[in-house]
Amino acid sequence: MDFGIFAVLAQDGITNGAVYALLAMALVLVFSVTRIIFLPQGEFIGFGALTVAALQSGQFPRLVWMLMAVGVLTFLVEIGSALRQRRYKPLPRRHLMWSGIENLAYPTLVWVLARGLEWQGMPMVVQILFTLGITVPLGIMLYRIAFQPMAEASVLVLLIVAVGVHFALLGMGLFIFGPEGSTTQAFTDWSAEIGALMVSGQSVVVLGVSACLIALLYLFFDRSLYGKALRATAVNRKGAQLVGIGTTQAGRMAFGLAAALGTLAGTLIAPLNTVGYDTGFVVALKGFVAAIVGGLASYPLAAAGAVLVGLLESYSSFWASAYKEVIVFTLIIPVLAWRSLVSGHGDEE
Amino acid sequence: MKISTKKLQWLLFGWFFLFPFLPVPGYWITIGNYIGLYSIVTLGLVLLTGIGGLTSFGQAAFVGLGAYTTGYLATAFGLSPWLGLLIGLAVSALAAGLIGSVTVRLSGHFLPLATIAWGLSLFYLFGTLEFLGKYDGLSGIPALSLFGIDLSAPRVMYGLIWFCLGGCVWLVLNLLNSRPGRAIRALAKGKTMPEAMGIHTAQYKILIFVLAALMASLSGWLYAHLQRSVSATPFGLHMGIEYLFMAVVGGVGHVWGAILGAVVMTGLKSQLQDLLPLLLGSQGNFEIVVFGVLIVLLLLWAPDGLWPRIAAVWARFNPPEPEVVAPAIAPDGYGDMARRAKPAANSVILEINEARKQFGGLVAVKDMTFEIRAGEVVGLIGPNGAGKSTMFNLVTGVLPASSGEIRFLGERIDQLGSRRIVQMGIGRSFQHVHLVPQLSVLENVAMGAHLRGRTSPLTAALRLDRHEEAQLLFLAAEQIRRVGLGDYMHTPAGSLALGQQRILEIARALCTDPVLLLLDEPAAGLRLKEKEALADLIRQLKREGMSVLLVEHDMDFVMGLTDRLVVMEFGSKIAEGLPAEIQNNEAVLAAYLGGIE
Fold first, then answer.
1. What is the predicted ipTM?
2. First to last CA, chain B
3. pTM of the full predicted structure?
């Protein structure tokens, strides 16, 4: 292998790794705040990429329908739980009003915007922001409907619920977007030659965006008081509630952020890869592997793990392309054994 | 006519065998075949995840190992499928043993993640290997035949599959209701308690991992010869997740829940696949949406799964009989059970010499020296944080000592693990009780008798252990009567009051036939009456010749009870002597009440 190929593979691996890193961040975030292994992460990749693609081709982004439907459902769930608690406390009118704004009025506003504006010619950044405006509330609503009522359940039960949500979203994805995949326009056609290596603008954008987001998340969780409060809910929900941390707020925020990161990951890979409604699952699994390397707890380690997975995948696809997945998923076992040894005793109930 | 719940369960199961004789469409038989196949895998998961506490997403990969092994051997070498079954089981056991020895030691959420990883890598391996036909798989696998009788018809295969399932259920139920079964049930409570009963937790974890893999492999073998072809898709992660689904929906800790889960999930899915396109049109994939939504709703309604719900309703009409009952009179050979020789009265049994434990810069136990003589009740007291519990952990082998010596009956034990130490004759209780709450008092106490029996998992599964089992249960019942809990023999341990649970733990420790009994803050959190009962029990044990080391910080409790007191503060011994002397010792008063400077 000469240096040129080596460098191209490295660039490829690092670029993919950066996307895996975003997904790993989201998984770590959700798990550490809510103890949910967020398998539906992958669906947001498809939702994000396909919605941007729809906007670019001048079609109506049909995900808005889903936002409206799930919004109505969420509002009904809110009313239901308020009615059930009527015996103990008065109807929380203000809360219900906010819920109405959030789950009914906002989706309608999004629908009006989607119908009323000419999205096709807009700058890509605006299109992505609009897509985030659809997916992030969707993530928060999902938390409200499926996970908030059973926030105290065991990790296993939460995981099974997550799988249920994954199935539901996957089926909806097929219905909304159809079986065909799409690609989106490139972010930039800039490229530069450094020595033997062609550096593509796409790679630079992906790396830059990922690096910024990772740095922000790291600073938020490790340096800010609010970030630390979120981590406290993961360690001990009851304890966190007793010292005045809103665990529900924390869960909403985690799901919103995870939806945003998934959507961004989708839009970052869409210019180079065809993304279908079901592409996300395997991509998210690789992010998952990366998150495991970080022990589902450490952001910088998860990022390092993601780059490792990207590089591993890139080089193994050069030497033994058929075995690329086998290699990626097998190498995780020694890493896990090592992480488990390092983290020491932790299997008491 | 009153029928026992146990018989009723088997009777209900028996109805499934009538199914193929009914004039039902072939499609139903196919569904029934799949339910049987899935149930076998799910049963393994119940054992592994529900009872042993090890979550696995990778069972589908073991189904694949079983299916591919027999498929490959039959198509490439023309080997008999029956030989393929044996080789498939061997391959799966080997693979599970290998994977298990690396991964089951993983703690917390690392294990389920690891199972995802190896599940995926085995799946991709099936799909890439040239000799397994890559993603097309293998076809032309022969049908089964037995003594020249062709078994290829789906209705015949149905019988075979459900026969295998029934066999597995029988074996698993037998296994769970035995000495190794109690060890498996103890696993879910972490490592400290089972190890303190002499249970080799790592070995038992690998055992249930291999057993679950064997059942998965059997299901794969049946699948291969039912379908007559195999390809990688049904052995992927999605299937692995679905098996776990069935187990959780049925009720993850319940053997019959495995079948219920498989019936509900498979039935639901096939009904949805038929029904929804009629209602909503064939565009889209609605069954998976509805399926996902139903799962979420079901778990919101019954977070523990369906079987416990049904069992609770049934129990209202027909209160359950205790499943495990000790024999009323001593079984044959009970008097000949090995018992430890009692040490000579007043000889030194535990000798602690300059024992020290350091955690980084913190010296938790600082060069402690004291001894215990046979027949003595010694109290180790001190204010909170004095290092009593660490000292306790050094003697029971939960922690190794950093330096110094601890000798028991003349042998050094300061570097031994708790499993080895309980074998030598030190029994213990826990400050925070470690019980399996849903099991009866008898079953919990019988966990302590683990080292008194030798039954292997195989003999237990085949129900050849009944003689020894009767001895162990009688032994446990004797200890329960000894501590005065005889009226609660069949009560679930979780429903006892805290004081009774502590006493239960003492009975469990007595089952190990100890020379020395270590009690960790047995009076903490007890009401006055409970404390009095506990003190009476300890006095009674002393009269019977037991040596006891009591770790406490309740002065009143230990004063009238102990022969001698050792007082600790900041990791060091500050006083030792008769209770009356300690009461007037100035250093002790200063430690407890604050000094007068």
1. 0.72
2. 80
3. 0.83
